[in-house]
Amino acid sequence: MDWNWLYSSLAQSAAAIVGIISAFVITKVVSNQGEYAKRLQLIKQLIIDANSLKGEINGRYFRWSNARIRERELKIIQSNLLNSPELPESAEEIYLKASFSTFDDAKKIIEKIQTLINSELSRREDDRKQAFQNFKASSNHPAYFERISPSIVSSSNIDSMQDKLNDEYEIIDAVIIKIERHTEYIKAQLSEASSNPESSPMISRMVYILGLMYIFGVLIPLCILPLPINQPAFWDINEIISEAYSIKGAILSIVSILFFAILGTFSSINIGLKYPANLMSDAESLCHLKNYSKYLVNRENSLSLLKNLESTIGKITPNFDDEDDDLLE
């Protein structure tokens, strides 16, 4: 029986299959490489734009606006404390009712409010002691029992900077909206890039299969050919090795080296289509508003604190005079 036709047909068929699949793999890798380069450039540009927005938000007058609002609100609170017959139970209660900037440090504000409460408690205690001393000195002067109420902070003085504050906050809000939209876009891109879709495990498996198919379907049959007619088919490893030192072996060796070099090149390209971890980490950090400015960290903390206070304290109206309530509103 002539086995040459079998090995010849096997080598030709396997070579055709290897060629077709190799063409598909190469085309897919080249396509993925283009997509990878585009997405990589896009992520880099998103990071550049995010850093630009970071500079824009940090260039706003947060410190000035926070200081003006804090000064106004603390004056209102101090006036209300002086004129209120009963003091609130906690500084948090006052903070919940007041209108401080959410970009300000809530903990520091509460500490300042607590200082005002302590100061008012100390003053009232001193007034009681003084009134008692005056009563002992002369019980015929009821004026000593009259409380001198300080003047309420003028509404016109409190709101003198309101127009400028409103203009500044409109700009800040516009920048925050831009940042929020930008972070959503970054999240969408990272969601697609996180799994490294361009670096396909299927292509890596196909490269291994192609290598095995080439060795057993093309290279070894060509090394065996030609076989004598009516000789049993068998593979003698010694004969195959001896073929490597012949002209046929040299040609097959050169072709095999070139083939595996091509496979190795595209396999390494495919494996390398993974986004750098440090780039992904930088982009991930820019998905959160708090990483754009310390004032946005204050905003996040303030909103969280206000939410907690509303759930624990509730919407409490302090025992302030109506005129003072209008100022807080």
Please characterize this protein's 3D structure.
The chain is mainly α. Helix content is 74%, strand content 0%. It is built from 12 helices and no strands. The chain has helices at 4-58, 62-83, 91-97, 106-137, 155-158, 162-193, 201-224, 237-243, 247-272, 277-285, 294-312, 322-328. Helix 1 (4-58) packs antiparallel against helix 7 (201-224), helix 2 packs parallel to helix 4 (106-137) and helix 7 (201-224) runs antiparallel to helix 9. The longest helix has 55 residues, at 4-58. It is rod-shaped. The termini are far apart.
Short description:
The protein is built from 12 helices and no strands.
* Integer average pLDDT: 82
Model regions low in confidence, pLDDT < 50 over at least 5 residues: 139-153, 316-329
β-strand amount:
under 5%
Tally of DSSP helical segments: 12
Task: Provide key terms for this protein.
disordered C terminus, mainly alpha, 12 helices, 329 residues
